[in-house]
Amino acid sequence: MSNRFDGKVVIITGAGSGLGFSSALQVAKEGAKLTLVDVNAEGLEETKSKILEAVPNAEVLLITADVTNEKAVEGYVNETVEKFGRIDAFFNNAGIEGKQNLTEDYGSDEFEKVVSINLNGVFYGMKYVLKVMKEQGSGSIVNTASVGGIRGVGNQSGYAASKHGVVGLTKNSAIEYGQYGVSVKAIAPGAIMTPMVEGSLKQMDPDNWEEAGKQFVEPNPMKRFGKPEEVGYLVAFLLSNQADFINAAVVPIDGGQSYKY
Fold first, then answer.
1. Known InterPro entries for this protein (predicted)?
2. Which of 79, 206, 245, 259 shows the greatest Cβ crowding within 10 Å of its Cβ?
């Protein structure tokens, strides 16, 4: 097993399930000390339990926090520095899809909720983590955007707008902080079989969502959903020192689907 994260401190938001969990497990296997953040305390405990099954001596700090609350975000950053002394890598991942509807029918409250979590939460995380990394003179941030952040996604105005915003924040901060030894990049997942994607399919067809899933991936050149662990491998690489010179990039992981549009 690689030891790319021996002695390294990694924060992961949205760590209670999906891509946050898979990435946390991967970097823990490679020696990381972890701060895991999620609004779902039960999900965090389950993530920690699975990590300790795989890596019994892993150091894991759990923080239940709402990423839309700036003080809570400042708090998880400060708690990490107090416990571990530094922050080497940050997977800024927490997000939701929101309800599906035509733009004219998309609820204003729903739009604000999705943007608050997906965009404001990412901004707050970057704001406080970047300050720590600038002072250290090193660090790596990976934000979770989406293929919906590099092209349109029908019936998902809030999601597409927020993920396009994440791409913009990523590129902007990469320009600002590269001179301080900090790299900032984003991933753009496509259809990865996570609880969030399963929920989306159930919105499309509650009674036959698995069949809807088959139709959903038909345009994909690989004709399948991605696996959360495949994203975990990519995130671990991008967070590691091996990817220090990758800056301002938005890396699709979608089986090639985005290149068809």
1. NAD(P)-bd_dom_sf, SDR_fam
2. 79
Contact 139, 129 (CB under 8 A): yes
Q: Find out whether 218 and 241 touch, Cβ atoms under 8 Å.
A: no
- Residues 147-204: pLDDT tens digits? 999 998 888 999 999 999 999 999 999 999 999 999 999 999 988 887 776 666 666 6
- pLDDT value of position 233: 98
Do 150 and 252 form a contact (C-beta atoms < 8 A)?
yes
Catalytic residue numbers read: 159
Give the Cα separation of 237 and 26 in Å (integer): 10
Alpha-carbon distances, residue 99 vs 41, 62, 94, 112, 160 (angstroms): 23, 29, 17, 12, 12
Distance CA 183, CA 247 (A): 5
Distance CA 167, CA 165 (A): 5
The percent of residues above 90 in pLDDT, for the chain, comes to 80
